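Re: the 29-residue chain
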Amino acid sequence: MDQHSAEMNQHGTEMNQHGAEMNQHSAEM
């Protein structure tokens, strides 16, 4: 269970990174 939570946290971090990139792209638009 802990390992699964760790993977989910990692995915969440990646998603946040993607969100930041998307915001940057929107700002450039």
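The first helix runs from residue 2 to 28.
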